[in-house]
Amino acid sequence: MFGPVACVGAGRLGPALLRRWHDAGIPVLGILGRDDEKTDAALRFCTVGRRLSSYGELSAAEIVLLGVGDQDLAGLAVDAAAAGAVKPGSLWLHCSGVHGLEVLAPLAEKSARLAAMHPLCPVPDREIGYRSLAGKAALIESAAADRACLQELAESCGLLPVHLDRPIDRALYHAACSLAANGLTSLVDLSTGMFRSISGLEPEQIEPMLSGLMAGSLQACSEVGSSAALSGPVARGDHRVLAEHLAALEIGTGSEVYRSLMLHALKMALVAGQVNQSQASAIEETLRGHGEAAADG
Ligand SMILES: NC(=O)c1ccc[n+]([C@@H]2O[C@H](COP(=O)([O-])OP(=O)(O)OC[C@H]3O[C@@H](n4cnc5c(N)ncnc54)[C@H](OP(=O)(O)O)[C@@H]3O)[C@@H](O)[C@H]2O)c1
Prior knowledge:
Low-confidence stretches: 290-297
CATH topology of the largest domain: Rossmann fold
Order of helices and strands: EHEHEEHEHEHEHEHHHHHH
CATH superfamily of the largest domain: NAD(P)-binding Rossmann-like Domain
Bound molecules: NADP nicotinamide-adenine-dinucleotide phosphate
CATH architecture of the largest domain: 3-Layer(aba) Sandwich
Strand order of the largest sheet: 3-2-1-4-5-6-7-8
Oligomer: single chain
Largest sheet: 8 strands, mixed
Number of domains: 2
Mean pLDDT: 95
Strand content: 5-15%
Radius of gyration: 24 Å
């Protein structure tokens, strides 16, 4: 059984995890925020814990979750270590994808155990996070001796732990996460805008069209892999249809994103043997040629 958990940061992910741990029966000490009102709101959401008012109070916790932004972690580690916040042997973990354990080094000098637990799940607000964390992967970096503890901690809030055996290129890892999550969200927004600009389509008709296309694509990718899942004019080698698409897309309404993604789709279609070299050249010329014409215009 775990000792009390405290959270630094009254934002989105920290309180969502805290509430899940509370649901799992793990004792919660409270939240140390920067703003009393925001902290109280986060505590109401968690339905447990009290407002902590100084780094010193964190020394009553066995586990300290650092739910602050990536850019605030290094300063927080320095300040908390200097303020005597570390109970020797306590576990301090952050949720950043872009940082490894090195960012918390000042805490290790005060005998804290360090870990990183990055849930691969978009958390636009704490309510959505609380509901959607279950069943999502979490990349975990810790000392080998803490692996079992992190396994249990992640599983107790419904996450599926993926342990690292050695440090990875975090910037590349985080870029991939960001493209998959934030890129997809941007794509939803761009596609929705295109549908909405079509006279004759009603807003309530658009959502099922879009979600069917996106869910169907993800489903096909998970069943046969991304290359085999590709369909549409690029996979069919049809540069004429692509030219019609580009002519219909106005600058600033996603045409640049469309071109980039279709050029990538072309690479996939070539590697998978869906198009031959002459079809690929015609498609590439169409996609790039229109770009130059549009930029000139
Ligand atoms: N949200 C996601 O989708 C997501 C997913 C996976 C991982 N993560 C990771 O989770 C961590 C937190 O992200 P988030 O989205 O939850 O951030 P967030 O909503 O911006 O919350 C961060 C909170 O930390 C507070 N804070 C910053 N420095 C502090 C300090 N020294 N003492 C006390 N509070 C402090 C901020 O206070 P103010 O309100 O005063 O600025 C803010 O309330 C990040 O490392 C992020 O990479 C997030």
